[in-house]
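Exercise: predict the fold of this chain.
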Amino acid sequence: MSLFVHVICDYAPGDLAWAEVIAAISARIPEDARIHITTVGSFETISTGFVLAQLGLAEASLRPKNLIVFANCAPRRDLRDPRANNEGEGVLYARLKNGVPVVVVNSGHSLSFVRDDIAELWSVSLQDEGSQFRSRDYFPKILAQVVAGDLSFRWHQLVASSVIPDVPPQSVGYIDSFGNLKTTIRVGDDAVASLSPGARVKVTIGCIVRTATVATGSFNVMEGDLAFAPGSSGHQRRFWEFFQRGGSAWSEFGRPAVGHRIVIEAH
């Protein structure tokens, strides 16, 4: 059975960095392995975690049977002091409760969305200094070891709830190519528990205030309307999202960054 590797990084689509990382990974894993790349915004660990959860926690019929997820978004913000010899955040190895192995840079919220779905979590013994481009020079080795069943790189076993931060509440979690704003608000959360289809809500993101209609899907609103509804992400507990039929909710809200706080009030 061929290997399938989901690679999540904050490189721009088509950037040289992607070409070098994929080449370095391909040089170390079986030739028949398939690789799919997903780009998130620069330093967006929230989006990294959002995407990681969506891919890694997919039900069995919607994910490759021999899947590994590799996520690298390393803003190197764990220390404010100057970095010695390009040292960066450490790397973690996780095995999800569904069996999917994950190799991820230990940064920000990269594991927040799967924290409760982790069966085991380990720090990794790996050189983390001496290269400005660790995802090319060092990380593919870990992926190759996972593929080979060699987990000798595991160093200290960790308690997920102690080292992984909570998902940021009521925030922009991911912005897709259509300009839909996927939020970190889940179906059943207090912020949306009282909402019913057709209701109007006042929404504030940053300094922009707009009115949206609570909907059940992306096409049961009028063309041009701003809608708020459970989206396609989040699996059993879907995330709510803002969309504008025929337009861009992201633009409508002034192009907010991932992580911006969302305030929802009855209109």
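Check your answer against the key: Confidence is low (pLDDT under 50) at residues 77-88.
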